[in-house]
Amino acid sequence: MLAEILKKSFEAYFDAPIEAWKEFSSLCEAISFNKDEIIKPQNTTEKYFYFILKGSAGIFLWKGNNFVCLDFAFDNNFCGDYMSLLTQKPTALEVVALEKSEMVRVSRDDFYKLSQKSVGQVIMQKSAESSFVEKQQQQIELLTKTAEERYRILQTKFPNIHQRIAQKHIASYLGITPQSLSRIRNPAS
Question: Which segments constitute the Cyclic nucleotide-binding domain (predicted)?
């Protein structure tokens, strides 16, 4: 079952054989998090690579006197502090469950064991490439689009985001205040 979910979630990037996903899923451990539970604290080293079966997570960075939301991940997506996982160094990033979440995780060591196989190498490469493209697109939008345009893009990408994620996190991700987000959401008021 898990192998099929992983395969379906990843097919847009690379159509790996089900056997590769069975091997990956055999290394996974089921774990759950409560809403607002810290998955990976800031200034620590990431030990796991997570896949969200149900729920959501956010990646945050402390700036000034509060956390800024850098990214979201929802059902059927990977999440975690990938930079720390790759470098094996602590980062200032914090990963938090944004709602009650069911996930599976694979340890860094097991994750890298998979990379010793050709299909595992391709899966890791495609994961890194898609993550890079997504972050570049996010940066381009931040520099070239208005807050309202970025909000509409976010709504298209995650249609029910307001039912799942606190407004303060959505506003933070967009780089605006919650009050500005309210005005964008309700232009007539």
Answer: 33-114
pLDDT digits (tens, 9 = 90+) for 103-154: 999 898 888 887 777 666 777 777 777 778 888 888 898 889 999 999 999 8
Residue in this structure with the two tokens 């030990």, named with its chain if needed: 47
> Could you state, in order of their start, the residue ranges of all structural domains in the chain?
2-116
In 4-55 the beta strands, taken as DSSP E runs, fall at 29-33, 38-40, 48-54
Query: What is the residue type of 41?
Result: P
Spatial CA neighbour of 78 closest among 112, 124, 140:
124
The half-sphere exposure of 135 on its side-chain side, counting CA atoms within 13 A, is 11
pTM recorded for the entire structure: 0.85
Q: Give the separation between CA 157 and CA 90, rounded to whole angstroms.
A: 30
Task: Give 2-116's CATH code, choosing from 2.60.40.1120, 3.40.640.10, 2.40.50.840, 2.60.120.10.
Answer: 2.60.120.10
User: DSSP class of residue 28?
Assistant: -
